[in-house]
Every structure is written in structure tokens, then in C-alpha cells.
Write a structure and sequence with these properties.
It contains 5 helices and 7 strands; from the N terminus they run βααβαββββαβα. By secondary structure, the chain is α/β, with parallel strands linked by helices. The strands form 2 sheets. It has a 5-stranded parallel β-sheet with strand order 1-7-6-2-3. The N and C termini lie close together (about 10 Å).
Length: about 200
Amino acid sequence: MATFSSKYPFLCVLKYIPSRYCSLRGWQIANRKAVLHFKKGELSKNHMDNIINKVRAITKDDASRWVITFVPASTDEKTLLRFALLAQQLSEQQPCPVLLESIHNHENYLPHHQGGGKKFKVHRIVFEDFKDKNVVLIDDVITSGRTFREMGNKLMRTGAKSIYGVIFAMTIHPNLPVKSRKYYFKSKKKFLYTK
């Protein structure tokens, strides 16, 4: 399991290199396409199964202690588009409650990559859905870990026992050697490190 700031562990399906970092080749192009499809709610069977297996590895199918939810996208419409099919498949293939509509944006906003601000948005959370539960928090892409960490903090304040993540893609910078990624990871800078 990968972690950042030793707070909330997570598993990721694939590594993602945005095209702004370098010219992409081979697996990098395939992974970028997979991320773009994921954001539109389109997952291959292989990727869907991979996510479900990672959720099962965390929850061990213990429905009494776990709930599964999603980090909201910039709008409620994008959140539903992105996660509805995955939520349906998770509901059908494992026993833990899947909460697609328990976290909402306080208001819609423009994502950072489209010129929006970096400030973390306030969310409306249905507190009773998370009280005394372990939470699997699913997100599409993790870059610095800030949104995931702050959402985890909010869920812990609602009374959640623990937070574990399943991330579809983790952004990596191809020009940083592993040693440098460890440095950035430890200093809570821009990039993450996984083993």
C-alpha cells in the first residue's frame, strides 16, 4: 500500500503522466486514455475488476464495519457521470454499502486544470453515513494528495474510524528518480512516492 504523510493508506490501479510533463509513449498514452475514459464514467472490464479487487482487499467483504464512498468531482453531474457505473458494480459484487450521494460539493466549481483555484472546496457530508465506520474513499486521480487527505480529515471529523483509499491513477513525474520522489513525498511537496 502506498501512503503519503503516513496518514491514510491507499492502493492505486495505474500510474499516470499528464502530457504537460513530457511526450508520452506506449503505456503512458494507454494510461492517459484510461484516465480520460474514467473521468467520463467509462471503465474497461479489466480496470473495473481491478478497482473492485482492491476494495475487497481492504474491506475483506466485512459489510458491518465498512462503507465505500467517492471524492466528489467539481460538479455533482461530473461526480455521477464518473462514479455511477462503478458504484453500481461495487454494489452488485461486494456486500459493503456504497454511498454515491453522501458527499456533495457545497457549490460547483471550475477544476484547477481549467483555470479554477487551488482552494479546497467545502463539502456537504451526511455525517450518520460515516459514524463509527471504516471508509474506502475512491478517487480518479491523485497528484499531491491534498484533496484526498483533506477529504479523509473531514470524514474522520464526522466520526469515521479509519480511511483507506482506492485511487484509479496516481500522477508521477517521469523525470524524477525514485530517490527524489521519496524526498518530495517526505517533505509534502508536489509529488508522491510508491514502492
